[in-house]
Amino acid sequence: MSADAPVLEARGIVKRFGHVEALRGANLTVGRGEVVALIGDNGAGKSTLIKVLSGVHQPDAGEILISGRSVQFASPVDARREGVETVYQDLAVADDLSVAANLYLGREIMRRGPLGRLGLLDKRAMRRGAAEALEQLGVAIPRVTTPTGLLSGGQRQSVAVARAVVWATDVVILDEPTAALGVVQTRRVLELVARVRDAGMSVVLVSHNMPQVLEVADRVEVMRLGRRTARFAAGEASTDDLVAAMTGALSTEPDDDADPPL
Amino acid sequence: MTGPRAQAGEWLRERIAVAVSEFTAATALVVLFAVLCFASPHFLTADNLFNIGSQTAVIAIIAVAQTIVIITKGIDLSVGSVAALAGVMGAIVVRDLGFSVWTAALVAIAVGTLAGLANGVLITYAQLPPFIATLGMMSVGRGLVFIVTGAVGVYSLPESFQLIGNGVIAGIPFAVVVTAIVALAAGYLLSESRFGQHVYAMGSNLEAARRAGVPVRRNLIAVYALAGSLVGLGGMIAASRVSSGQPNYGIGLELDVIAAAVIGGASLFGGQGRIAGTIIGAFLIALVRNGSVLLGINIHYQQVIVGLIIWAAVYFDQYRRRRLETRV
């Protein structure tokens, strides 16, 4: 609960799938108003860790803390209730729904009074709210009634990020948000990340793109073989350092023996 | 950039685009209607229109049910069997237990709802694909209807049994009135309610909906149960129309209602479909059938024509979507 406790912290997370140990005591620390890049080679456990932190997977051991308070996420809904919003790599939006409907999916505004209790939507309020939210975030979408599937890849990703930002109170997790995007679209999404940070929110950014990571992140945490092996302040590390840490040539973390017990 | 006026203009354009999606099928419907008016003196008569209306009522109601299922990326192959079972049960409770026709309708709806619930549970909890779950129900339902009837139709029903299928209110067939109420309510539910929004979301991207906190299982069960209840109602109207419970009713009905939904713009890939389109599709098929009979066209050509319409409707719909995509 203390003010200087990390907004989000994972301690010694273990996750097994059958005989495969995807996470072997993984740690992650995210301070308030900080963009933390989470990097690692394929199979290092980044996605699994993200899914544990967003409530999709339940860890076999370890602890998740929000502002120093231990929490358990039985489902994505639990994580969101604690202010952690996640943008997943590929299944962020429903293409057939309008932009406004996607922003409010699962959290629709209902009509006032008995009509609302009967389950009727206040579509006008959602259109207005979506337009305002997108404008505040500087996301240029021609109109919020457009089916999301008709937007460009960058616009769709911006909608997904905006959706997370609008509802998050503490942390937004972005899993490879620019993997499928072109240069200009990537720039837009990164600008959006910076704006989110400036608004006081913390961001966890999973990425493969080293220059991008060094540009936008305040800190970098490196995963290898299911655990954290290195942490850098973004200013101190070079691309070579990051690659060395990803491949196991460099480690800033204590040895296995000194890690939290499994 | 986007002032209120520009927004309003965009909004209007969007509305028009939506209208155009039903335009192809609607135009075909109007043209066919006009052609039949000229081609046959018997077409534009109160009797014939009355007949088309009540014939189409059953297919339209069940097509509405099928549309809701298809929007979730599902399919219900059991509609024909379940309609037959519901109609037969409705007839049996009137004949053997002396129920009124209205109570019998409730029994038929309950039978359909139960079958739909079973479909929904098989799909969500046993995680069977909708095609398989409802294929099984198609067989189970048909088996049950032969078991309860001994494969003989249920006859000796009172005149009142025909009220639902052949009755008239203010000059309009009662079945048509029921169909209109069902279609309006379903259309409103899909476009204005949270449940409807979730139906589209689940069909469009099930995992995204789940992670957004949409109660996916509960909703899917509700969708199949709701569809089942409409199938039960349709089965009762069909039985009432012929004043008997027919164990053979509805064989191949699933294909007719899927055709109506697809002609009306529903996508088997989920996420798309509208009740208004489905109703147009159902009437288009009905007019083809009726017109063929009036013009003395060989019955086998009807099937060919309906097939051609399905191809044309889906082709034009995809063409329109591609154009919309390149424009935005």
Automatic annotation (TrEMBL), chain A:
Keywords: ATP-binding, Nucleotide-binding. Residues 8-250 form the ABC transporter domain. GO terms for molecular function: ATP binding. This is Sugar ABC transporter ATP-binding protein. The keyword ATP-binding applies. The keyword ATP-binding applies. It comes from Glycomyces niveus. Coiled coil: none annotated. InterPro entries: AAA+_ATPase, ABC_carbohydrate_import_ATPase, ABC_transporter-like_ATP-bd, P-loop_NTPase. Signal peptide: none annotated.
Automatic annotation (TrEMBL), chain B:
The keyword rRNA-binding does not apply. The chain crosses the membrane at residues 23-43, 49-70, 77-94, 100-123, 135-157, 163-190, 220-239, 251-269, 299-316. Keywords: Cell inner membrane, Cell membrane, Membrane, Transmembrane, Transmembrane helix, Transport. It is a multi-pass membrane protein. Signal peptide: none annotated. It comes from Glycomyces niveus. The keyword Transport applies. This is ABC transporter permease. It is found in: Cell membrane. It comes from the Bacteria.
